[in-house]
Fold this protein.
Amino acid sequence: TPHAMAFQPPTYAGQYPPLTPRSPSDVTSFDLLHTSLRTIPELAREGDKILNEEMLAKLVDGVKRFQRDHLGRKAKSKYWPTLRLPSTLFSDRSSQGPMATAILSAFRIKQTSPWRNFNFDNPKLFDDNISIIKRMEDDLYNRGFLKRPVLYFDATVEEGLGESEVARLTKIAQRFGASVVDSFPSKKVTHVVAYDPEEHDAKDVMEEEERR
């Protein structure tokens, strides 16, 4: 089974530990972010019932649940392969962090849409919610909070699986927005993919991949 070396995403100041979604402690953790968002001219017209700490907590919880239910490896919607945004981004409550960027992206979509409130549970708003996720992704890339993966396939992959399989895996990676390089070491590489014959198709490995 090809596998990638561990890659640690960047961490941010203002990172919060996991909190129960929309709990009092979760809502309170949005105080600073809410105050900061209120200073952005684009959000000045948003009423207190739309932009407050509780609604921000609800928005973030809605995005996370929507991603869990509709996006990712096993998603079968017409938008495959739309990827999930990393959960670490939603643990940041700093005023200039990735969550602030993502929330602003969501409000920009809302302000050009006929509906008034975010609703990630309404099937009729599925396309709109996908647009929110994609806008978040684009803005996070543009701000440097996300970086597209750069893969290097170790020689063991071709030796173990064959050249045609490397070509197939390369196409899959590119379809998901990654790029593949031919040389290593390189500062651009984020993941090294290698082949381990002892793990290939092992029962525990297949079960672990099935759970992901």
About this structure: The chain is about 40% helix and 5% strand. Strands lie at 2-4, 150-153, 179-181, 191-195. Confidence is low (pLDDT under 50) at residues 3-13.
